[in-house]
Amino acid sequence: MLYWLGQFSDGGDVFNLFRYITFRAGGAFLTALLFGFLFGRPLIDFLRRKQKKGQPIREDGPQTHFVKAGTPTMGGLLILSALLVSTLLWARLDNAYVWIVLFVTYAFGMIGFADDYAKVTKQNTKGVSSRMRFLIGLAVACAAGAAAAWAHPAALTGRLALPFVNEFMLNLGLLFVPFSMLVIVGAANAVNLTDGLDGLAIMPVMIAAGTLGVIAYAVGRVDFTQYLGIHYVPGSGELLIFVAALIGGGLGFLWYNAPPAAVFMGDTGSLALGGALGAIAVVTKHEIVLAIVGGLFVVEALSVIIQVLYFKRTGRRVFLMAPIHHHFEKKGWAEPQIVIRFWIISLILALAGLATLKLR
């Protein structure tokens, strides 16, 4: 919205700053961060009053989690509120990619909210059926994939970029939309599985988002794409504002989610943020790079898949408990130890993902 102030500039005044993506990204970050600090505590108090018993704790989970009983969930509302206000304020609202990512984020946020609401009101850990969540998520991802294919330039429509390969793109044709669905739904559920310890999911999400934001800015500038030898996606740089808002809102949430957490993100936040990562990857044509940048989420999801398949086949378990962060809890690792080490791994993977821009 504030971008249009730049239209009043003659190029030599303060209004000219609103034309720059980097300036507006900084504004989006600060706005979302301030929103989180201002409304975090009132929201937590409201959730505590409404939920009373808080998020139900899994009976088969680590025993250390029972001390968290009564902690309210749906803290993702704080991130999503800050993200929405900040993005609408600072981003160009005539940019199709911004609306595609916003649509995915808040559609998955609504799915997560319904699941959290069911868990809290029924006081059980099942919530909305996994099949229903999966089917609705597929429908949302299908719409987003089709919209992205329509918004992309003709030279990019239906094509998949490969990391470490210069210029060549694989033509998926009609398979692009199903592939996009896999990326978006997979990312949403992988982040959801990772959100099991205080602060565990939000920092890797911010790290991955920041990396994708840099990539979105790079592929949205023709001079950068020519230098790096990567494809040009005109208009994608505007997603840096969305990412900056996400990081600002995420930090505001982390202030209250740091151990011991005053509020949990819940599926409201984890599904929404995971969907956002997948949507940004689809829009910027960096779907495969997302698997590197978000490698921690991939490992968490794979640990569950491996555990389930192996148990069905043999009746035994590969891990003491899945997702894998619970395996380390069972081995005696302290929660902060697991969280910080996973943060470090996320940062390393993010740097590896950025390296794909130049190693071609």
Short description:
The protein has about 350 residues and is mainly alpha-helical.
Name the descriptors.
360 residues; mainly alpha; two-stranded antiparallel ribbon; 13 helices; 64% helix; 2% strand
Q: How big is the Rg? A: 20 Å
The share of residues in extended strands comes to under 5%
- Helicity level, as a percent range? 55-70%
Number of structurally distinct domains: 1
Enumerate how many helices there are, as a single number.
13
Tell me the total number of β-strands: 2
Order of helices and strands: HHHHEEHHHHHHHHH
Q: Strands across the major sheet, in which order? A: 1-2
Largest sheet: 2 strands, antiparallel
The general outline is: globular
- Return residue spans where pLDDT drops below 50 for at least 5 consecutive residues: none
Q: What is the structural class?
A: mainly alpha
Q: What is the rounded distance between the termini?
A: 38 Å
Mean pLDDT: 91
Report on this model:
The protein has helices spanning 21-51, 76-90, 96-122, 130-151, 176-194, 202-219, 222-228, 239-257, 266-284, 287-293, 295-314, 324-330, 335-355, and strands at 159-161, 169-171. A hairpin with a 7-residue loop joins strand 1 and strand 2. It contains 13 helices and 2 strands; from the N terminus they run H-H-H-H-E-E-H-H-H-H-H-H-H-H-H. 64% of the residues lie in helices and 2% in strands. It has one domain. A two-stranded antiparallel sheet has the order 1-2. With 360 residues, the protein is mainly α. The model has no long low-confidence stretch (mean pLDDT 91).
